[in-house]
Write a structure and sequence with these properties.
Blueprint (H helix, E strand, L loop, with lengths): L1 H7 L2 H12 L9 H22 L3 H48 L4 H11 L3 H14 L4 H9 L5 H16 L3 H56 L1
Helix pairs in contact: 3-4, 4-5, 4-9, 5-6, 6-7, 7-8, 8-9
Length: 230
Amino acid sequence: KLNMAHKIYSEETVNKYQKKINLLGYKDSYDAVIFLNVRLISSILLFFVLLYFLEFGYIIAPIVTFLYFWFLPKIFIDKKIEKRAEKLDNEAMYFFEVLTLSLETGRNLKTALELTANNIDSELSGEFKKALEEVKYGKGLNEALESLKLRIPSDTINNIILNISQSNIFGNSIIETMYNQIDYIRDRQIMRTKAKINKIPLKVSVISVIFFIPLLLLLILSPVIIDYFS
């Protein structure tokens, strides 16, 4: 199956899309070749349907098919990855705070991760549960954490996982590392909130231009318009 796929798609293309699809998480990931085949077949069908049913299909069909082929990954993969990254970032603060508290009680990293993941119901904790399952099946903890990073689209969280792994390998203070990372997450959330607040005046201005100003002009000019048509 893979050899046949490589006759149609380059290995680089398959690997590129597989890496993206993995970022959707272990629950929603699937084979990149399936996605590429669906995109190719549906694009061909779309082209011939438009060509056959539309009067100017020979003009519209190539344009629409190209746009569909180009934007399909952006809509069904890239947009989902962006939303997932934001969701995981929002969950990160609470998850790593609980993990740090678990470590402070004297538990080792693996036990603290198990306790945290089992007591928090979130997508991030689900990914850590998956990593811990891999440990039960024979993977080392650091190896499982490296695999976890391939499923996480957030650079912030991946940086924390990297620091946890390095602290575990070199015997550094994981608790100190976690407090530094939590402070970093908190600062990032404050900056993100400020950025959203700064965008509000622009959005209000756009809404005013689109809706309120035409309505105001209509109210002002309505007597003139009535006199003109009366």
